[in-house]
Amino acid sequence: MKNRTVPFILDGGMGTSLAKRGKDSSALSNLQNPKDVREIHGEFIRAGADIIQTNTFSANPAIFKKDYKKLISAGVKLARKAVADSGRKKLTVAGSIGPTGKMVSPVGKLDFEETVNIFKKTARAFYDAGIDTLIIETFDDISEMRAALIGAREAADGFKIFASMTFSSGDRTSTGTPAEAAAAVMDALGADVIGVNCSFGPEGLADAVKKIRAYTSKPVMAQPNAGLPDISKGTMVYPENPADFAAKCRGLVKAGASFIGGCCGTSPAHIAALKKTVKNITPPPAPGRVPAVITSRTSFTVFGDFPVIIGERINFTARPELASSEAKIAAEGLKQKKAGALALDINLGRHEEKTLESVMAVERRTSLPVVLDSQNAAEVEKAARRYPGVLLLNSISAEKEKMDSLFPVVKKYGLPFIALCVSDRGVPGTIKGKIKIARSLLKRAREEGISKDKILVDPVVLAASSDTSSAYKTLRAIENISANTVIGVSNVSGGLPQRALLNQALSALAVYCGASALIVDPMDTDLVYMFYASSLLSGRDKRALNYTGYFAPGSEKFSFDNPLSQAIFEGSREEAVRLARLAVKDMSPFEIIEKLIAPALDRVGAEYSEKRIFLPQLVESARSAEAAVEEVERHIKSGKSEIKKKGTIVIATVKGDIHDIGKNLVALLLKNSSFDVIDMGVDIDSKKIVNEAVKRKADIVALSSLMTTTMHSMKEVKQLIDSKKLKIPVLVGGAAVTEKFASQIGAFYAKDAVKAVKAAEDIISG
Fold first, then answer.
1. Rounded Cα–Cα distance for residues 395 and 372 (Å)
2. What is the mean pLDDT of residues 551-570?
3. Phi, psi of 560 (to 5 degrees)
4. Contact 279, 486 (CB under 8 A)
């Protein structure tokens, strides 16, 4: 695959190609319809595909517990046979690995290590079947993608792995992960090719491809759908014909895709047109330098021209009271976020056993990237393995023992880290000494295969009370170290009066000298003001965008006057339960629901719709509301709830689809909005859904489908309801479902979980 200037062509939509033939679109066709699978492979080969993907998207232990190995083995053999029959010996056969259909905890219920094991078994089955490479595709949850990459690497390191996310709103997944963060995560965990697939048509993915290209040096891939499907004369129809699809894919290649193919709805004709259209286009080269970046699930922080404020206040040594509660840790993180921190340092001191739970609490509640202040390799690995992003390790010193224990963890999980200018002899007392240690750390990292771009050097400032020249030496070192730099500002003021004044002055000087990041107390308002002013006046705030943005009117964060509403808004379950327990002393359960809980959920829904928060935060708020409602109901002395139900809803994921992510969230929000919800689960037969609706006297049937190949089951449910002359409205939604599709089958439509609640309320109210 080296020395090639034109894009590699992947094949197209196997599932939709099988569906056109009236065959099962899942991996079962490898055993039930092998001739069709082989013929479709052959058609894509003749169309010009360089990479053929096995029909194994759903073949994993979570979906096919007993038969996944048989399905994978059969899928590989069918693809190999098609390649052999074609005479094109240099074709690559790639093992397609899709998601489990469930969300990983804490957002979902699937245990992370269980998920890693699922993909480890799947990858091992491909290894045993003799695959060339793996394609981990159509993932929406970044935690599940992390589990898949870790599992694949642990099962058979050495495989070339393609990793591809699916996006629901241009450049974010439906769980809120931006393209830049997704690229950083997949790159960190060793994906060899990084990209996007499914989602929508080619035009909708161009921004995501461009952003991924800027945040990885790895090749980029794109496999869009042939648009979003509609129903025409009872069958699924994709709007992009081969010529239009191919023409629009030119933009994806120009945006950075050097591997390009098709997903749902793309036929051999689409791939043939694509090959012809892009054969003379040279994709842009990888960026000469990829910026250092850390991420949470839903945000990312770049270390570049503008310096970064890292909040220092989650420190168990300085503030031991934080060790008593995750809620306290998260609350402290939220305060620093509101004050302007772009990342949060967590220093657990003697409480390193709380590393993982503390890191996850901060990420889950604040959405800011984490800086883990630890040199305990075992605890760092626990956090790095589980964290749904790319955390920054603070720090690795030049002490041999520390380097030997921490570099393997950094390499395995692709962690950026702070290189601390401390050797076995201690902190150097000269500028040259600091620079020498920095160079030795950078050299050791280079020998380990770690890019300098992943490193921030901390020259270490000592207290001015013990060395009045330490700040000067540190600042000069920052100016002369040829790497990103960081400074722990508060060290300088220890033992001296007016500490805040010294911290503010050093912050301004560090910004002027070029520090990439400052670890400071963001609750010191004067320091933050000084930070923005010095960034502007030193020429590091291009066009004054950060300065004016920070001081712009209306930039304050929203908050409720009532503490229970605020706790739900912030997703604090412990606090919500405590405050609900207090509220029942003064208010009726109905008043608490209507005046405190419902407004909080309404605001959360508005923030979600405006993309100011994302799915993980929405889930946390919904669960906090659920816990508060349960607490209120426990205190109703009569034993009969005063909370009147708005209606009964039967909800299910339709036949053939095992994804429960969206359905579970809709069910949770509907329950919190006073609906009686009967959740039937996933892969539910149409007749069973209708029978359950009749049995429960349902006011609404709500249906979910993630895959385009199962959307027809929604139509089937609606037709059954109509044929029985049942006056039960049907509400549909899912990644591929559109308002036009809903209208065509005579159903109501909800774009997301928040809108599903509003739609249900509108249906009930008439």
1. 8
2. 81
3. -90, 150
4. no
Sorting pLDDT into bands at 50, 70 and 90, what band is 637? low
For 223, 335, 619, 627, 754, the CA distances from 608, given in Å and listed in that order, are 28, 20, 11, 20, 8
pLDDT in tens, 331-348: 999 999 999 999 999 999
- Pick from 694, 733, 695: nearest CA to 714: 733
Please, what is the angle between helix 179-188 and helix 142-156, to 10°? 20
Paired sense of beta strands 300-303 and 292-295, if any: antiparallel
395, 455 Cβ separation under 8 angstroms: no
Burial code of 135-163, b = ≥16 C-beta within 10 A, e = fewer? bbbbbbbbbbbbbbbbbbbebbeebebbb
Interior/surface letters 520-531, b for 16+ CB within 10 angstroms, e for the rest: bbbbbeebbebb
Q: Using DSSP, state whether 701 is helix, strand or coil.
A: strand
DSSP H or E run through 181: helix 179-188
Strands 648-653 and 700-704 turn out to be parallel
Q: Of 415, 404, 409, which is closest to residue 453 (Cα–Cα)?
A: 415
DSSP letter (8 states) at residue 526: H
Mention every residue, 6+ apart, whose C-beta is less than 8 A from residue 459.
421, 434, 438, 473, 474, 477, 478, 481, 485, 487
How far apart CA 69 and CA 66 sit, in angstroms, is 8
pLDDT at 55 over 80: yes
Q: CB of 368 within 8 A of CB of 342?
A: yes
- Could you list the beta-strand ranges (E) of 435-496: 455-458, 484-488
DSSP label at residue 319: -
Average pLDDT, the chain: 92
Token pair recorded at residue 431: 């500028």
Q: Please give the angle made by the CA atoms of 573, 578 and 579, to the nearest 5 degrees.
A: 100
The pLDDT tens digits for 474-486 are 999 999 999 999 9
Strands 220-224 and 257-260: parallel
- Tell me the two tokens of residue 524: 């010191």
Q: What band does 640 get if pLDDT is binned at 50, 70 and 90? A: very low
Q: Rounded to 5 degrees, what are φ and ψ at 663?
A: -60, -45
CA angle 136, 137, 138 (to 5 degrees): 150
Taking the model in full, what pTM does it have? 0.87
536 closest CA partner among 553, 526, 549: 549
Whole-angstrom Cα distance, residue 194 to residue 173?
15
Instruction: State the distance between the two ends of the chain, measured CA to CA, in whole angstroms.
Output: 60
- pLDDT at residue 766 tops 90: no
Rounded (10°) angle between helices 112-129 and 68-86: 40
pLDDT in tens, 296-314: 999 999 998 899 999 999 9
